[in-house]
Design brief:
- By secondary structure, the protein is mostly helical.
- The protein has a single domain, classed as Globins (Globin-like, Orthogonal Bundle), CATH 1.10.490.
- The chain has 7 helices and no strands.
- Helix 2 packs across helix 3 and helix 6 packs antiparallel against helix 7.
- GO terms for molecular function: heme binding; metal ion binding; oxygen binding; oxygen carrier activity.
């Protein structure tokens, strides 16, 4: 049985998805200030590694960063509903910009919505 990672195109797919996402982040007035000027490329790589590992690809993320601990890693950022919505808007544009079967898109999007909701750490 193949993993979603393999079914949707492996590394090339996730590289495209994260590149499209960070192109949105780079111009978003809420998201862009969360990243140091020199960190977008590194952040994109970390997201790509994480998504690849989560969906059954290589364990590069864990080998380089340890356990994901997403809430802990994002605790230093002010993530309210506006930041959550901006993140989902940028990720929606990225997901819509890549080719994949509708059932895979639905599965991926369901996870991304759940993960984004879990990162909220500030009341509105």
């Amino acid at each position: 049985m193949s993993s979603l990672y393999e079914e949707i195109g492996g590394e090339a797919f996730f590289a495209d998805l994260t590149a499209q996402f960070y192109a949105q982040v780079a111009v978003d007035p809420i998201l862009r200030p969360m990243y140091p000027d020199t960190d977008l490329k590194a952040a994109a790589m970390r997201l790509q590694w994480f998504l690849e590992q989560y969906w059954g690809g290589p364990t590069t993320y864990q080998e380089n960063r340890g356990h994901p601990r997403l809430r802990m890693r994002h605790s230093e950022f002010h993530i309210n509903l506006a930041a959550h919505d901006a993140w989902l808007k940028a990720m929606r544009a990225a997901v819509d910009g890549v080719e994949m079967k509708p059932e895979h898109k639905e599965q991926l999007w369901g996870y991304l919505e759940m993960a984004a909701a879990a990162m909220i750490n500030q009341p509105d």
